[in-house]
């Protein structure tokens, strides 16, 4: 195993504590990164050190992110955003058809232990809680490049890179936040807006728009190994972008008001969020698929 890679094993059949990741709430105005690397075992020092957002061009923001020594994404590349027409075509009906088309059996059974490749400990905790008892999940934090494209393309590419990196079967996930008033942007690029604005300022993105509707989209990809076509599973949850309410522990949870209850994700119990969330819905599909294929 690569000694530079951090590996942690979580036996989901044991009584593992889904609340083992405890974070300090960043001070206002936002001074932290939205997510920290799993390689950090201690409370998050980088919450103190991420530079204040400046009025900046995309390229100077990029430079700021690249030069932050604590930024887990600093080796990744930001490309120019796609055109509006290009974005519309990403989220057209073909998108779902492609996903259905891709949901076909891999050539061999899924192993009973699965490598979930993510650098986001909050994602990991949710996936761990939702898949408990279904499959034993291992986590590796591999610094994967994320390409520009549709969520489908980004997730599929992420899965291929992860399978190459660990030379074996992998599960990856990509999360989007889509604003109707912006024709579904920022979508897969939400991470960069979170880095620039933080949860306390994110809602200003829709200042000047009457329509605050937002959709959270989660896409998992399972890839059997290098050279294999990833299989995708997607969940979507409708809501609204609102001024932050509740703990600012996980990404934009405090800015996303779930349409069903009027609460932000951050105001909901974790177990309640997982029942209705974009991630919960995607994992329901993955669970059904795994149940038929897990190698016992
Ligand atoms: O349920 C969620 N509730 C609130 N915020 C969330 C959620 N899920 C992801 N997020 C944030 C994290 C990141 O700012 C962006 C997705 O970016 P995304 O590339 O998928 O995640 P990431 O880079 O943190 O981890 P990974 O190593 O799995 O790619 O939205
Ligand atoms: Mg990512």
TrEMBL record:
Predominant cellular place of this UniProt entry's protein: cytoplasm
Protein location: Cytoplasm; Nucleus
Catalytic activity: ITP + H2O = IMP + diphosphate + H(+); XTP + H2O = XMP + diphosphate + H(+); dITP + H2O = dIMP + diphosphate + H(+); N(6)-hydroxy-dATP + H2O = N(6)-hydroxy-dAMP + diphosphate + H(+)
Region annotated Disordered, chain positions: 1-78
CC terms in the record's Gene Ontology section: cytoplasm; nucleus
Record-listed ITP binding positions: 118-123, 158, 174-175, 250-253, 273, 278-279
One BP annotation, GO: deoxyribonucleoside triphosphate catabolic process
Pfam families membership: Ham1p_like (PF01725)
SUPFAM superfamilies membership: ITPase-like
Positions with biased composition (Polar residues): 1-23
CDD domains in the cross-refs: HAM1
Physiological role: Pyrophosphatase that hydrolyzes non-canonical purine nucleotides such as inosine triphosphate (ITP), deoxyinosine triphosphate (dITP) or xanthosine 5'-triphosphate (XTP) to their respective monophosphate derivatives. The enzyme does not distinguish between the deoxy- and ribose forms. Probably excludes non-canonical purines from RNA and DNA precursor pools, thus preventing their incorporation into RNA and DNA and avoiding chromosomal lesions.
NCBIfam families hit by this protein: RdgB/HAM1 family non-canonical purine NTP pyrophosphatase (TIGR00042)
Record note on quaternary structure: Homodimer.
HAMAP family: HAM1_NTPase
Family: Belongs to the HAM1 NTPase family.
PANTHER family per record: INOSINE TRIPHOSPHATE PYROPHOSPHATASE (PTHR11067:SF9), INOSINE TRIPHOSPHATE PYROPHOSPHATASE/HAM1 PROTEIN (PTHR11067)
Protein name: Inosine triphosphate pyrophosphatase
Organism (species): Lophiostoma macrostomum CBS 122681
Lineage, highest ranks first: Eukaryota, Fungi, Dikarya, Ascomycota, Pezizomycotina
